[in-house]
Design goal:
This protein is mainly α. It has one domain. The protein contains four helices and no strands. Helix 1 runs antiparallel to helix 2. The protein is elongated and about 50 Å long.
Length: 146
């Protein structure tokens, strides 16, 4: 979807931010890398997660009746948005893991070598899930717009 057609709320977070933070961790684990992860977490918690929560609790219930005939009669009701809801759950789960790593890093005075692999995995996972989620939204839901 072009940036011009993308709804304003969708510009709130880029799937590139988690990947950039993970890439940064591959070149070092010092204060600069930690700051990059903190900034990514801030974007997630202040912008993306509230947006996803609003989608889950306001948009999806409103879209479900319109999606049922568009997707297939068998997908009516909550099933019509189940895939997107599952992506929201995974985004939230990975965001919580990043938050746990940040709490540990602050308690220890920096990132520990033992947490780098899992933290990178969380961030790359977020990148992948966000890209897929945004693509699914564009393909499934924005086709309903005139």
């Amino acid at each position: 979807m072009s940036e011009a057609r993308r709804p304003p709320g969708r510009l709130i977070a880029s799937p590139r931010a988690p990947r950039a933070a993970a890439d940064h961790l591959s070149t070092g684990s010092g204060p600069q890398a930690l700051a990059t992860v903190e900034e990514t977490h801030r974007l997630l918690t202040e912008r993306l997660l509230p947006h996803e929560y609003a989608e889950e609790h306001q948009l999806y219930p409103a879209l479900a009746p319109a999606l049922a005939p568009a997707l297939a009669p068998a997908l009516g009701g909550p099933e019509a948005t189940a895939t997107m809801s599952r992506a929201h759950a995974e985004i939230e789960r990975l965001s919580r893991r990043v938050a746990t790593h940040l709490r540990l890093a602050h308690a220890r005075g920096g990132l520990d070598a033992g947490q780098l692999d899992d933290l990178r995995s969380c961030l790359y996972g977020l990148h992948t899930v966000l890209r897929l989620h945004f693509s699914q939204e564009e393909e499934s839901y924005f086709t309903l717009a005139p």
